[in-house]
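Below is a filled-in request sheet from our internal design queue. Each sheet records the structural input a requester submitted and the sequence that came back. We keep these sheets so that new team members can see what a complete request looks like end to end.

REQUESTER: design group, bay 2
PRIORITY: normal
MODE: inverse folding
CHAIN LENGTH: 332
BACKBONE (tokenized):
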């Protein structure tokens, strides 16, 4: 019997090697764990549903999320709900169907988004809220909320208002999008401050939906409705009020003080110029950065590194006295 090994034709040997390599690549690509069979770290897929990405505030938040994801080797897919709850739910459902590793949500309706949160929960996909909250008392599980305490934000505006006009006066109120957690909680904070100052009255309230043109129209309506001497201040929940403040100055209504929210470049300039009395500084960039950092830590299993149930950021109040100490949060 011939005991020498039988020679394998070269073409068969090459085919065998290629097949083995193909099998190896296929196996690595289907591996759902954090590390592949070759030991390479998995790229986490993070989806972020923002109720309306056209709102200027979100520009720096989105920019910082993308930068942070690139630095950490993650992928972030940011999609807009276009200001419509049905679309917001649909976006989250798409993330679930596409088996994203973690979903970030910035909903317009804290209760209305819960059915989508529950679908993600049922698919074992963790969910974090960013900038606007979800009402977990209505059901669903949120890992944490990354943003600011909007109740504290509203209190800050209330305290600025008292400093601006004293213990009495009529006030026009411009809110953001009705039903958002920011709109609800900022109003609650403001009203709790005003309970301690009964001489200050909110005489009119309208929603501008975080829109500059709407805020300007509301301001003009207030000035028409309340002649000189009948309105002491206008409080805008967001930065949109700055355009109305400029209009007030041009019309000679120096009797009306303006309090706004957030700190973009035009608000910073308005405070420096004296057009706006003050604002509460909410910076979007660290919200985007922290959202991605916490998402990656959670997916890596470092859950103790994620503050729960809330990851709040600071909310300094800014007037002409300290405006030079702060850079604009966006717009420069």
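RETURNED SEQUENCE:
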């Amino acid at each position: 019997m011939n005991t020498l090994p039988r020679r394998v034709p070269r073409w068969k040997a090459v085919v065998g090697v290629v097949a083995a390599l193909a099998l190896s690549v296929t196996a690595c690509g289907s591996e759902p764990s954090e590390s592949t069979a070759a030991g390479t770290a998995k790229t986490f897929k993070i989806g972020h549903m923002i109720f309306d990405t056209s709102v200027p505030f979100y520009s720096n938040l989105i920019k910082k999320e993308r930068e942070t994801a690139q630095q950490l080797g993650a992928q972030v897919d940011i999609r807009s709900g276009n200001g419509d709850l049905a679309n917001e739910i649909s976006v989250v459902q798409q993330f679930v169907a596409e088996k994203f590793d973690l979903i970030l949500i910035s909903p317009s309706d804290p209760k209305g988004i819960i059915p989508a949160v529950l679908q993600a929960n049922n698919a074992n996909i963790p969910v974090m809220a960013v900038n606007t909250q979800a009402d977990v008392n209505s059901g669903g599980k949120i890992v944490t909320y990354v943003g600011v305490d909007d109740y504290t934000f509203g209190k800050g505006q209330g305290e600025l208002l008292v400093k601006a006009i004293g213990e009495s006066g009529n006030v026009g109120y411009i809110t953001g999008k009705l039903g958002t957690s920011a709109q609800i909680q900022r109003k609650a904070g403001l009203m709790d401050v005003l309970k301690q100052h009964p001489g200050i009255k909110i005489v009119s309230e309208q929603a501008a939906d975080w829109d500059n043109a709407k805020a300007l129209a509301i301001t003009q309506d207030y000035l028409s409705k309340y002649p000189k001497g009948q309105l002491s201040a206008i409080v805008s929940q967001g930065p949109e009020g700055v355009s109305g403040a400029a209009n007030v100055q041009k019309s000679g209504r120096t009797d009306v003080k303006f309090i706004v929210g957030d700190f973009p470049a035009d608000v910073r300039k308005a405070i420096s110029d004296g057009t706006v009395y003050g604002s509460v500084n909410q910076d979007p960039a660290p919200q985007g950065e922290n959202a991605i950092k916490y998402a990656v830590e959670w997916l890596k299993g470092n859950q103790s590194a994620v503050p729960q149930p809330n990851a709040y950021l600071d909310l300094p109040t800014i007037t002409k006295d300290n405006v030079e100490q702060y850079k604009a949060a966006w717009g420069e």
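SHEET NOTES:
- The chain has a mean pLDDT of 89.
- The two ends are 86 Å apart (CA to CA).
FILED BY: M.R.
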